[in-house]
Structure formats: C-alpha cells, structure tokens
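Renewal narrative, Specific Aim 1. Our central claim is that a sequence can be written position by position from structural information alone. The example that follows is taken directly from our test logs and has not been curated for this report. It begins with the structure tokens describing the chain, in the order in which they were read.
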C-alpha cells in the first residue's frame, strides 16, 4: 500500500454491497460508523441508495 501523507490514521477504506452481493461500492471516510449509518438509512441519495447497498463486507 502506498503511503499518502494526507491520510490520517482515522480514515477507513470500506466496501459495501447489496443483499445478493451483485453490486459493490468502495469508499473512504474519516468516520466509518457515521458513514455506514448514512448508507443504511439512505440519507444521502446517490449510487449506494439507488442500488440498495447497505451491507458492509470489508473495512480497514
């Protein structure tokens, strides 16, 4: 993994999918719990709400 001086230790990379595991989304956030909540509640309209991506399958 390449080191990026702008990324702090608080950032997380995560992968979301739908129930059938047919569509995936890769995101980066500085607050994983808040961001997953936003995906699950569809409070931000976009790709993940359009394709019902609410299952967290990976993060680091």
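The sequence written for that structure reads:
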């Amino acid at each position: 993994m390449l080191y990026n001086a702008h990324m702090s230790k608080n950032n997380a990379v995560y992968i979301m999918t739908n129930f059938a595991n047919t569509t995936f989304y890769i995101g980066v956030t500085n607050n994983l719990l808040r961001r997953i909540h936003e995906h699950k509640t569809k409070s931000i309209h976009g790709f993940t709400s359009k394709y019902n991506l609410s299952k967290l399958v990976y993060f680091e």
